[in-house]
Amino acid sequence: MKNRFKRRGLAVLLALCMLVPLGLTGAGAEAAERSTSLGASQFPRGAVTTPVLLNGTEILAGECYRLEGVTYVPLRRFCEVFAPRGSMTWNGQTNTATFRTDNLELSVQVGRLYITANGHMLYTVGAVRNLEGHLYVPVRPLARAFAAALTWDASACAVGLTRADGTSAIRRASYDADEVYWLSRIISAEASVEPFVGQIAVGNVVLNRVRSREFPNTIYGVIFDRKHGTQFSPVAFGTIYDDPEPSCIVAAKICLEGYSVSDTALYFFDPDLSTSDWISRNCTFEFRIGSHEFYH
Questions:
Q1: The model's pTM
Q2: 7 vs 115: CA distance, rounded Å
């Protein structure tokens, strides 16, 4: 009788173990980001193996690749080089890896066009990829997270990283709350339905105007500038006061980090909706993203 009860208890215990979601455990990180390296044959089609050097010595040989002008590195292996004592965890529900050291918290989500490092929003240009359980991240924002300077050697088609002694991570972010407040609202009001890079481009226009002598020298001043009539239709319609979409808050912070699609664009408009063609008649076309055309 006792043996029968023991067997039943063991069966119940095993059944309960099967119900535990592995994606929420520490071991889930190993399943999603294995420590073994990925071979070149497993890189995306069109990718080219690219050397990455740290202080003149190649690291992660054969594990890094370049695709569409963006160099990708394996997240776990890269972090192990820069911070061997750090810890990696994985959230299987959100497909997010988090790497922590005493002075760095790094968050990377599959499919996103940015990573977070000590509160900084760093644009990746290329989306974070999951290649057969290995997370691959564009090297430039990762280098910045670990306080490493990056250069591109066009003759050798190689990435060079330089790291000074005593600095191991980017400082904690400190955004100006008023700048984030207004920049995120004008981006959202003008471009909430636009591609993410289009949202960044709208923020760039505002900041380019701040730096231009032709416009006020603050974000608030540019948005509410009425020198030549209302500059932005959301000011006239009142939608400038609506809560911004989350992606637009991120886009605003990326702009404030210094990333720019264009350092010269001062105007944009949707030619299908605009009632005026003044911009296209008087300014120089630069590019189009989504429904917006950008000019200087």
A1: 0.86
A2: 49
